[in-house]
Amino acid sequence: MRHLVLLGTGGTIATTATSHGLAVSANADDLWRQARTVWDPEEVRVEALDVNRIISSAASCADILALARAVAEAAARADGVVVTHGTDSMEESAFLVALTHRHRAPVAFTGAQRPFDDPAPDGPRNLAAALRWVADPRARGTGVSVVFGDTVLPAVGSRKVHTMALNGFAAPGRAPVAAVDSTGVRPYAAPAAAPAILSPDADLPRVDVIGQYLGVDATAVRAAVAAGARGLVLSAFGSGNTTPEVTAACLDLLGSGTPVVLASRVGAGPVEGVYAGGGADLVRAGALPAGDLSPWQARLLLAAVLTHPDGVQGVAERYRTWLSAVGSVG
């Protein structure tokens, strides 16, 4: 009999309606009982545990590192692990756990767009699919994934792409790992292994994301550094473009040894600094292209890299090596 661990953290999948809005009320056992109406195999034992009971927009990095420790403990003794999680920050939490995951047991994040007490909830089907995926021997060694709308996506590159649609997640530019539905599990592709470069016991340094928009100046850059940011991620225009003011401020930071990562605010595609006076100057000065990572995942990768005492050149080499390992260009 295969042993799976279900870790509940809250999120819409566990909420019910109150007079003040949706609130987390269902626990992991409740979610498993509901999912068993969709999939209830005799050959699988599910151990349901609660790690947290919050909406995911309220989660902190410390909360997700605590979750990563719970995932590591479960993965060491189970055939697979499923985490139920809110959709707001799922793409970041799954990625952060992937940075810590060292076991062969597969880990799947899932959740719902509709609450637990909705007349037609999507949570039971999503949870059943996630459990079916990690129970399948072919999932072993695939690392951390996001399972949503009958599709298994790699955690690396996953994004929430719709506020309410039932297929609200995608991994632009990356192939789905598998499909899971009433007919079973159909693997499509083996994702590139995401190297574990972060201890779940680490204290993540502050890394801020600076948005680029029409006419933005360097106020946010200066404020982030003053607040103690050890690195910055630019959510740049297009393939890596920045305003003249932000470019100048970040060139100063790069000159003083503060790492700057160049990501894109666009939903898909790689980053390449091509314009003089903008991204090209930054890359030439040592800014790190984020490949196809979202600014939010790029932020977590930089924070993880900064937990290693490598110096400026070591940070760059470690960042580029990790991106290369997952099939991204940086």
Give a verbal description of the structure.
- Helix 1 (28-35) packs across helix 4 (123-135) and helix 3 packs parallel to helix 8 (295-306).
- The termini are far apart.
- The longest helix is centred in the N-terminal third of the chain and has 15 residues, at 61-75.
- The protein has an eight-stranded mixed β-sheet with strand order 4-1-5-6-7-8-11-12, with helices on both faces. It has a four-stranded parallel β-sheet with strand order 13-14-15-16, sandwiched between helices. A two-stranded antiparallel ribbon has the order 2-3.
- With 330 residues, the chain is an alpha/beta fold.
- Strand 11 (178-181) and strand 12 form a beta hairpin.
- The chain has two domains: 2-187, Rossmann fold (3-Layer(aba) Sandwich), CATH 3.40.50; 207-325, Rossmann fold.
- 30% of the residues lie in helices and 23% in strands.
- The protein has helices at 28-35, 61-75, 90-98, 123-135, 219-226, 244-255, 279-284, 295-306, 311-325; strands at 2-10, 15-18, 21-24, 44-54, 80-84, 107-110, 144-148, 151-154, 159-160, 169-170, 178-181, 184-187, 207-211, 231-236, 260-264, 288-289.
- The model has no long low-confidence stretch (mean pLDDT 96).
